[in-house]
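Dear Dr. H.,

I hope your travels went smoothly. While you were away I took the liberty of generating a structure for the chain from your last submission, since the lab meeting agenda had it listed for discussion. I wanted you to have the full record in hand beforehand rather than looking at slides cold. The sequence, exactly as received, is reproduced here:
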Amino acid sequence: MLTGKHILLIISGGIAAYKSLDLIRRLKERGAGVRCVLTAGGAQFVTPLSVAALSEDAVFQDLFSLKDESEMGHIRLSREADLLVVAPASADLMAKMAAGLADDLASTIMLATDKPVLIAPAMNTKMWEHPATQRNMRTLQDDGVTAIGPGQGDLACGEVGAGRMSEPLQIVAAIESILIGQVTAAPLQGRRAIVTSGPTYEAIDPVRFLANRSSGKQGHAIAAALARLGADVVLVAGPNNQPSPPGVAVRDIESAVQMLAACEAALPADIVVCAAAVADWRVAGEAEQKMKKDGSGQPPALALVENPDILATLSQLNGGRPSLVVGFAAETEKVVDHGQGKRRRKGCDWIVANDVGPGTGVMGGDENTVHLITSQGVEDWPTMSKDAVADALARRIADHFAVG
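The corresponding predicted structure, in token form, is as follows:
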């Protein structure tokens, strides 16, 4: 989607600079040309060699380079790009930009450019919250600079709060939004999507039920991300406490049987994303009254029957099969191997596999580490917030339809 676009990436100082390497890779994957400026602070965290290897271009560092400045390098760099991206944007560089200082190559380029600028701030929470930084941020926004982030979470300094640099795929989405413009700002316009989310409850009696652990955070985030890209989204949701995503039609259900029925009722669709944690079994016959202990010390015998396989059913429809069916595989071991096997068994197009073993904090947490498994292979995505995973998956779906 970025073929023919030229990005000038300025990497300033901070531990988040390591994410800039992945950002370069993600931009190159999408066809963008990437040229990089590395500040003195940035060079303390990533090397010019690694940046040059990934960008496949020279790395610029010195304002007073005889070779580069004989060609007015700071002017040329600022004008040849379609977009300037500062990631990470340190508090120091943001202050220079706001004040119009130009004492190194990066700040001089920023002052000389006539192109749009996107910054991804990254710093300690107190630095971000400081009145000076907030004042600088307002000044930059008034000057037309676009900002993404920072996000909330654990910081390298050991503190928790705002200051994390946005994930590379989130920055890519922002870059696409700026460069591609309104023509493709809604690349899924006219597409219909069904997303399942949350757990299912399988009643034992009027009080008790069987269920899987699921907060619904990931499924709801995916529904919202697809809607932001213009899709007409139906969210089939098991019991959860998540707010309904804006612009999404929600169908609340409890059981797996009800979830399948709601999905079938929402057809036809172009896209199905089965992110719900569906219970594999249900009780053969729900008791009409609350089951009581009989004093024998023996638990009641529960006869279980297998629930309908929603992912396999939608993947193997004889007529009206959605063009793209995506399943989730929540695994506690051999995550990729089990995910690949699930994709083959179910007949779906993609599987998003993730580790939900003890200690990962994925179930109910705010972050996820996933592997996208397709017929072409496995894409290992970095640990991201569930919102970022949703944005990345939605963009990947949009790319699929743009190519197909």
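Two observations you may find useful: The two ends are 13 Å apart (CA to CA). The CA atoms of residues 197 and 219 lie 4 Å apart.

With kind regards,
E. W.
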